[in-house]
Amino acid sequence: MLSLPKVELHLHLDCSLSYDVVKKLRPNISESKYRDMFIAPEKCKDLADFLKRAVSGVDLMQTKDELQAVVSDLFIQLKRENVIYAEIRFAPLQHLCKGLAAEEVVEIVSESVKTQSNTTGISAGLILCTLRHYTELQSIQTVRLVDRYRTYTNIVGFDIAADEAGFPIETHKKAFNFAEQMGIPRTAHAGEAKGADSVWETLEFFRPTRIGHGVRSLEDPNLVAHLISNRIHLEICPTCNIQTDIYEEYADHPINEFYNLGISLGVNTDARSLVNVSLTDEYFNLHDIFNWERKHFFKCNMNALNAAFITDEMKDRLKSKLIAGYNLDPENV
Asked: What pTM did the predictor assign?
């Protein structure tokens, strides 16, 4: 599993700090303290409870050196398990506490990702996030950052994250309308802390081509049919969904049912440190619990590449790597 080439589209930079980088930035921290601060409990009360633990990573990403160190650390993790393409997301407005401007944050992270991509050979794009609890002005500021940088950097898209159940979408409609008008690729967290209605309203008002999580779509057969017919890609993060108590245990997760129904989906970690999981761990879980084989992982990775916010030329190049790595014929999977 470790050596299989992988694609990851749903990955939060600020929730993926390894002990190594935290120790580098805060030498006095112990491993037990790191676990308390950076890893969420195996079972949280809900998404809001889970997200309380995310602040530790954000607090440690407030200077140029810290941001660069965290990006470098993430690429070490990606390289270790043969991720060939990743879309890394973060909310730039969370990293202004020590004097950086939002533009500086985007430029630092973008340049760091470019450097690490060149060093490791891992292709990567950046998605800028607004957050559910942000004001309309903050959402518009974030999407304008995407628009400003996407034509000449590795910024590839726009997302909305954070507590889906606690904050309605009304505040963010203008930002997503602007994104659509400007042709900015869009994904959005939905169908995680709330049910199928959340996915419906997200599709109606934000019009994304991908949904982050979206697992509760299964509650509405009409929604499932809509996802299939419109090729809406689900960025599924199984272990995280267990941790946020959407499902009691891994065997209850609907990912296998989604796959069998023909929904476009990919496998993701979401938050590598917060969830305490790697992409390889997820593959082993899917193999052990749902009897997934190479063909399942190959198809999910191909789905993810088809849904990625990159050029067709880059998709074709990366697909060649997948075909070579899995030694499977796409027409027979």
From this structure: 0.96
